């Protein structure tokens, strides 16, 4: 069995990289302190926190479509932050930037101590950041065998 070490990177297709770049620069570089690896007209890529996030321009035939989290594909992605204070600080940065907040920091039932904020990028791609104490649900499954879908 292979034990993955997390997700190395995520690449998102956006309608216009130049329009989306200020949002991702604020989020990834200014707020999370990630390093800008590539900054070009058609690609913006930051690395740090054991991951990378890249935005590239969607194919021309898809640029008129809006993001729909109920379609096949990405529903949302989530950063796992280190404290409730980090969630609150991120929320303040998002509000200051004028980002669309889906829900302000709140407790959730996904795991004991779950605390999260949910927001959208300029194309409506949903992004969450959460804090879960300890290893969260990973502590719940560590002593249980993994089940396989039938």
Q: Describe it for me?
A:
The protein is of the alpha/beta class and 150 residues long. It folds into two domains: 1-60, 2,3-Dihydroxybiphenyl 1,2-Dioxygenase, domain 1 (Roll); 75-150, 2,3-Dihydroxybiphenyl 1,2-Dioxygenase, domain 1. It is 23% helix and 33% strand. The chain has three helices and eight strands. It has helices at 17-31, 84-97, 137-141; strands at residues 9-14, 35-40, 43-48, 51-57, 77-80, 100-107, 115-120, 126-131. The strands form two sheets. A four-stranded mixed β-sheet has the order 1-4-3-2, covered by helices on one side. A four-stranded mixed β-sheet has the order 5-8-7-6, covered by helices on one side. The chain starts with 8 loop residues before the first strand and ends in a 9-residue tail after the last helix. The model has no long low-confidence stretch (mean pLDDT 89).
Q: How would you sum up this structure in a few lines?
A:
23% of the residues lie in helices and 33% in strands. By secondary structure, it is of the alpha/beta class. It is globular and about 45 Å long.
CATH architecture name of the largest domain: Roll
Binned, the helix content reads 10-25%
Specify the CATH homologous superfamily of the largest domain.
Answer: 2,3-Dihydroxybiphenyl 1,2-Dioxygenase, domain 1
Radius of gyration: 17 Å
Q: How far apart are the first and last residues' alpha carbons, in Å?
A: 18 Å
Low-pLDDT windows of residues: none
User: Could you tell me the mean pLDDT?
Assistant: 89
The CATH topology of the largest domain comes to 2,3-Dihydroxybiphenyl 1,2-Dioxygenase, domain 1
Class of the largest domain in CATH? Alpha Beta
Quote the beta fraction: 25-35%
């Amino acid at each position: 069995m292979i034990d993955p070490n997390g997700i190395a990177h995520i690449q998102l297709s956006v309608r216009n990289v130049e329009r989306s770049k200020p949002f991702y620069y604020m989020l990834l570089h200014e707020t999370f302190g990630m390093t800008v690896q590539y900054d070009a007209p058609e690609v913006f890529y930051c690395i740090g926190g054991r991951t990378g996030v890249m935005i590239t321009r969607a194919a021309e035939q898809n640029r008129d479509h809006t993001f729909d989290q109920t379609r096949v594909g990405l529903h949302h992605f989530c950063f796992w932050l280190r404290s409730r204070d980090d969630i609150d600080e991120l929320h303040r940065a998002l509000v200051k930037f004028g980002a669309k907040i889906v829900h302000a920091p709140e407790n959730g039932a996904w795991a004991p101590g779950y605390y999260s904020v949910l927001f959208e990028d300029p194309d409506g791609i949903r992004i969450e950041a959460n804090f879960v104490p300890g290893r969260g649900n990973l502590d719940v499954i560590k002593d249980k065998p993994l089940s396989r879908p039938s």
